[in-house]
Specification:
Length: 300
């Protein structure tokens, strides 16, 4: 007798597609966060597979801080055009210009994304927002359910979450409330890369090893660009690096690497013992609870 058995990757894909379809069935106005980073790229592929041969039945949303890597923005626009998906861009720069948010003295913008995101959600009437967060990234993300309830202020209360026994998801909300949905919750960084390899998914070039001018700041390698300039005590060095995660160019560090193919990245990720956010995201270094504090305010 032939036994049909799904692989680990097929189980993860099946679960994620089930979640995406469940949201579309339960909630009227979903949107998918799409930045051009690897997790959101995988999310977009899963949405594509969930509804093929039809088009993806919801738009994508990018909170544009104005501090993006050019390679990532170029990829974002190219991928959206390929799929014919409508993209909503919420601009942090426009919010600064209008006075609705104030840029911090250090010039970084990651921490002022939240009000721009919440305003875009309200303006678009979105009541289900897909995100690519995974539980292995951060302690605060590990606390979150797949369906993460947010009140009418967009805030998250980790003590007020709904049970998700037997993969049953409660999407019932009142007017003004919303649900953040994380289909990749049970994936790891290594799973993401294996899926990219399996699906032959294209990625921005900065995810692979390349030569770049950097400065070593607190043990983290930041690319020299218009947002990061060397301090008087810092030297510019050319290093062979790649990015494990992509955030603001003003806050995201690279790692030294010779991994220039998906297979070599998989081998590298399999041998590391530190998460990509811990290794490369300066915005998570403010305090042990920085991610949870921001999530309570409405951050993804």
């Amino acid at each position: 007798m032939h036994l049909y058995q799904l692989s680990h990757l097929q189980v993860l894909e099946s679960e994620a597609i089930h979640i995406i379809r469940e949201v579309v069935a339960e909630l009227e106005h979903p949107v998918l966060m799409f930045s051009g980073g690897k997790d959101s790229i995988v999310m977009l592929r899963l949405a594509e597979r969930a509804f093929h041969p039809a088009k993806i039945p919801f738009p994508v949303l990018h909170v544009d801080t104005g501090h993006n890597f050019p390679e990532v923005l170029e990829f974002r626009d190219r991928r959206v055009a390929q799929l014919g998906v409508h993209i909503v861009v919420a601009s942090v720069q426009e919010a600064i210009d209008s006075g609705s948010v104030v840029e911090p003295p250090d010039g970084t913008r990651n921490r002022i994304q939240t009000p721009v995101l919440l305003a875009a959600i309200e303006k678009g009437g979105f009541n289900a927002i897909f995100g690519g967060a995974r539980r292995d990234e951060d302690k605060a993300r590990a606390k979150e359910r797949i369906f993460s309830f947010r009140d009418d202020f967009g805030q998250w209360d980790p003590k007020n979450q709904r049970p998700e026994l037997w993969s049953l998801f409660n999407g019932r909300i009142h007017s003004g409330e919303s649900i953040r949905v994380f289909p990749l919750s049970n994936w790891t960084e290594l799973d993401i890369w294996h899926y990219i390899q399996h699906q032959k998914i294209d990625l921005p070039s900065i995810y692979f090893a390349h030569d770049r001018e950097v400065v070593d700041r607190g043990g983290m390698l930041y690319a020299v660009n218009e947002f990061i300039q060397p301090r008087s005590t810092e030297l510019i060095e050319k290093r062979r690096v790649r990015y494990r995660t992509v955030g603001d160019a003003s806050l995201t560090a690279a790692v030294e690497s010779d991994a220039d193919t998906v297979a070599s990245v998989i081998a590298e990720v399999a041998s590391t013992r530190i998460t990509e956010r811990g290794a490369t995201r300066g915005d998570d270094k403010f305090s042990e609870a920085s991610m949870e504090d921001r999530k309570r305010e409405g951050y993804f």
